[in-house]
């Protein structure tokens, strides 16, 4: 990859990350607190995932494919936020496995579970 292309990709990633952080900052408090924590968990445990807005919500991509995402409760007028995984996440376990989770709070136990799922998802 030439230096010019690498610089463009780095700028795009930085712009995408700024957009995700701005979207999170604009969320109502309950969603914002969850989204900030999930962003921290994902970016710490899977630095190869790049933050990017996906349908107006934080998504995390690898090779331009969404691996996991956050959906704010307020945006979709639901009683809970959602943290989910797309089909490119490597979570396959038998003939059926969960790909989305309702999230109302992130305690130390949930943080550990989410971190493990994110690490598994990226392989």
Give the N-to-C terminal Cα separation: 24 Å
Measured as a percent range, the helix fraction is 40-55%
Indicate how many domains the architecture comprises. Answer: 1
Hey, roughly how much beta strand do the residues contain? 15-25%
Mean pLDDT: 95
Radius of gyration in whole Å, from Cα? 15 Å
CATH topology: Aspartate Aminotransferase, domain 1
- Sequence stretches where pLDDT stays below 50 over 5 or more residues: none
Walkthrough of the structure:
- With 123 residues, the chain is an alpha+beta fold.
- It has a single domain, classed as Aspartate Aminotransferase, domain 1, CATH 3.90.1150.200.
- 48% of the residues lie in helices and 22% in strands.
- It contains 4 helices and 5 strands; from the N terminus they run ααβββαββα.
- It has helices spanning 3-25, 29-45, 73-76, 108-122, and strands at 50-54, 57-62, 65-71, 81-85, 100-103.
- A 5-stranded antiparallel sheet has the order 1-2-3-4-5.
- β2 and β3 (65-71) form a beta hairpin.
- The longest helix is centred in the N-terminal third of the chain and has 23 residues, at 3-25.
- It is globular, with a radius of gyration of 15 Å.
- It starts with a helix and ends with a helix.
- The model has no long low-confidence stretch (mean pLDDT 95).
